[in-house]
Write a structure and sequence with these properties.
By secondary structure, the chain is of the alpha/beta class. The protein folds into two domains: 127 residues, Rossmann fold (3-Layer(aba) Sandwich), CATH 3.40.50; 150 residues, Rossmann fold, CATH 3.40.50. 41% of the residues lie in helices and 19% in strands. The chain contains ten helices and twelve strands. The strands form two sheets. A seven-stranded mixed beta sheet has the order 7-6-5-8-9-11-10, with helices on both faces. The chain has a five-stranded parallel beta sheet with strand order 2-1-3-4-12, with helices on both faces. β10 and β11 form a beta hairpin. The chain is elongated. It binds NADP nicotinamide-adenine-dinucleotide phosphate. The site of NADP nicotinamide-adenine-dinucleotide phosphate has 26 residues, from α5 and α9.
């Protein structure tokens, strides 16, 4: 039976990037829907779950993409609400690459250091990618300092993550000025920068003299770099004694995870692939 992926996207035009990756991941037929609003989701899901018998539903899946993560989250919620009993299909959320990118960054960091015993600083920690990086690091047992220009915003994200990871160690930190970032990075072995595109959050002179730092990962691909002095192409090379990755350097791992996650959707009809499940899948890729 043919594998059908229903791609739903809140943007006016469904993401071509998401479509290409789906086809490269082995999907036979892609049904793309752009400008999808939450109140339209149920009828799209019904079209997917009532057309094939329960035993064949693993051949149909849903991908929620697009550029706006909170709108994507709202669509995912409606998708899962529309299922009942065995009448369901597997679904994955990766709006703006938030889940695959966060998973790839944390996996890359974990290849160099045991995450359960590190202090990690997440810059841009209040954004969709940063929040997921914070969540995954906390789940791994790292002591996470989550940075923002506003300590209040950072604290409220830490509270939200702590509700999901009860044993998590998360502290909101102000990281909007060079003085604040210098304090925030002190004692950290890992820094992952997930700030907005084209904004430097961590100047080179600060991280190059942070004695404890061992791994630095920048997820911003738009100049200037989010972490000064780390090329977007850096892929595990050492600079100032620190193992460095840029956004493109992490991109290979991200794409591998994205394709594996799409393929995994067709293994059963019950998967809901959000940040944690996608990270777990990435871990199993080895
Ligand atoms: N490599 C990939 O495949 C890939 C995929 C997806 C995303 N990305 C990149 O990952 C990064 C994070 O994505 P995102 O969607 O989570 O980012 P985002 O929501 O645009 O921004 C993340 C955080 O950056 C801070 N910020 C925004 N404007 C700022 C400014 N002018 N100065 C300092 N801080 C600012 C904000 O935190 P506060 O207001 O709380 O300070 C915001 O919550 C982006 O650079 C994105 O391009 C890469």
């Amino acid at each position: 039976m043919k594998k059908i992926l229903i791609q739903i996207d809140p943007d006016l035009q469904a993401s071509v990037f998401d479509s290409v990756v789906a086809i490269d991941s082995g999907v036979d037929h892609l049904l793309c829907h752009g400008a999808v609003r939450p109140d339209q989701v149920q009828s799209l899901v019904h079209g997917g779950i009532f057309t094939r018998g329960p035993k064949d539903l693993h051949n149909t899946a849903i991908f929620v993409g697009g550029s706006n993560v909170s709108e994507g989250e709202a669509l995912l919620k409606e998708v899962t609400k529309s299922f009942f009993g065995p009448m369901r299909v597997s679904v994955m959320l990766d709006a703006n690459g938030c889940n695959t990118t966060a998973a790839a960054a944390v996996l890359r960091a974990g290849t160099h250091l045991g995450l359960s015993s590190v202090n990690a600083l997440v810059l841009g920690g209040t954004g969709p990618v940063g929040q997921r990086v914070g969540l995954l690091l906390a789940k791994e047992g790292a002591s996470v300092r989550l940075g923002s220009r506003s300590k209040e915003r950072a604290d409220s994200v830490c509270t939200a993550i702590s509700e999901k990871v009860e044993s998590g160690s998360l502290t909101g930190v102000a990281a909007g000025t060079t003085d604040e970032v210098t304090v925030a990075i002190d004692g950290c072995e890992i820094v992952i920068s997930a700030g907005a595109a084209g904004v430097e959050l961590l100047p080179e002179e600060i991280w190059s003299s942070a004695d404890s730092l061992k791994v630095a990962i920048d997820l911003n691909a738009v100049p200037p770099e989010g972490i000064g002095g780390i090329s977007v192409f850096a892929k595990g090379e050492e600079k100032h004694g620190v193992i460095c990755y840029g956004a493109v350097g992490v991109g290979g791992t991200k794409m591998k995870i994205h394709k594996a996650a799409i393929a995994a959707l067709f293994e059963s009809n019950v998967k809901v692939l959000d940040a944690e499940a996608i990270y777990e899948l990435g871990q199993n890729l080895g």
